[in-house]
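User: Before I run my own analysis I want an independent prediction to cross-check against. Here's the chain; please return only the structure tokens and, at the end, one sentence I can use as a sanity check.
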Amino acid sequence: MSLTSSIANMETPHFYFEMGQLISSTGHPQFASNMLQLVDKLVPATQLVLSEWTLDERQTSPLEISLLGRAGLQDDLPLPEPPRRHDPLLHKMLEMDDSLLIQMNAQGGHSRNPPHQCHLVSRKANRRCVIGLYREPSQGVYSLAELSFLKSLSATLLPLLERHAQFHRQQVLKNLRSWSTRPFDALQRTPLQREFDERLSLGDINLSAREKEVCLGLLTGGTVPEMAQRLSVKNSSVETYLKRAAAKLGVSGRHGLAKWMVGA
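Assistant: Structure tokens:
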């Protein structure tokens, strides 16, 4: 199918029906499959991977990469994973000013026939929502016309992915709230913890269970060695959890955490 006929298909009732299905599946497991089904009929793609990257822009490194969905026929295509410091896609994510970026054809790695890739990326603060499109080498690289077309389509797809990512973070936060803490920590479940959860929810911030546990421990007067002993980890691990949490909260250290907690 030519690109011209693909664009013409966007004006059909069936396209709007599929777009409606995609919108209604936001926040649900079938979201990735619905997006691939819509995109593949316009620009051929073998597989689609949706992810959200939380970046430490000061340290020029990723803090967390969350998989938000995957669809396609192959199981051997790469999943998002912490990239090397010199990864070109990471550098473009850190440098982008616009809310939209297309990164194409990141070939290489260990595969003898790596798939052609195209990444659509949106930016909000230190988060990047990424639509990764992959296709077989036999299908050829993404042409300039296809890239231009995908860039236009991403104006619709990326806001939907951002909404999908928000639902995902809210679900993770909900799971954390129901997380069963250790007997020692059960004594610490005070109004402070409820207030901490509420502030996370208002800020749409997702901390891992350990990051949250370290923050609450420090807010209730615990020291790094005490937290390390309680969690059966090294002091450096506690410092790492605190550093990651502080970056997500946009603060620096214990004092910054305390100021964030009181709304300063």
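Sanity check: The beta strands are 47-56, 61-72, 101-104, 116-124, 127-135.
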